[in-house]
Amino acid sequence: MITFLGQCVENFITAVKYTLKGNVRLKSVVSQVASIGFDSLGICMAIVFIASCVIALQVANQFLMSGGESYIGGFLAVALIREIAPGFVALALAARAGTAICATAANMQVTDQIDAIDVLKVDSVGYYFAPRIIAGAISVFCIVLLAELIGILGGAVVSYFSIGLHPVRYLNSVWLMLVMKDVWVSLLKGVIFGAIVALVCSTVGYNTRGGAKNVGESTTKSAILCTVYILVADLIIGILFYMNP
Predict the structure, then answer these.
(1) Is the pTM value of this prediction over 0.70?
(2) In the 8-state DSSP scheme, what is residue 121?
(3) Domain residue spans of the chain
């Protein structure tokens, strides 16, 4: 695990240097944003929307019995923006787009395409990693922002139909309890999580050796490692920004 983390850091530094030299083409980044973000948008939105609806449904009656139904919107918004939206989006994107990134890199490695790139005097790490890391960060940032809006609206719909909470009261509690710090930290998580997904999956694929069987094993490994690294990053960010509010 420590060795793999070191490889990820080394590959990230190489990708940053490759980017700063101006070698990353905008067309490549846009193509990866479409592949990583747009193709994963539907499943990410669905997961966050359903999760928000379920949470609102579970807590609505308890808040109503205690006379705190006016706080449902604020409670859901804080939970959604701080943890649910960035976490669920990153995990869904890792399962959908991250595994595809890993499989592509692994297939290129076992078919000697990476060696061919190196023979052409092109930095294969920068060439493959940089556009995907940038695209991953942009994609998760944008999806998290949309997911937060969809999740809050989903909670409002469920609260209205389950306990008759008026949307104005719901949104008013969201406005009162939510602070801009939560939004910015959430979006920061989106950028970091997106970069982690692309970096980890690319590194696993890049390290693959063997044949088709090894490609499948690497794909599974990348999904597991992404989950671990995302949760660890989430914990670290939480400690940095919320340990001493």
Answers:
(1) yes
(2) T
(3) 2-242
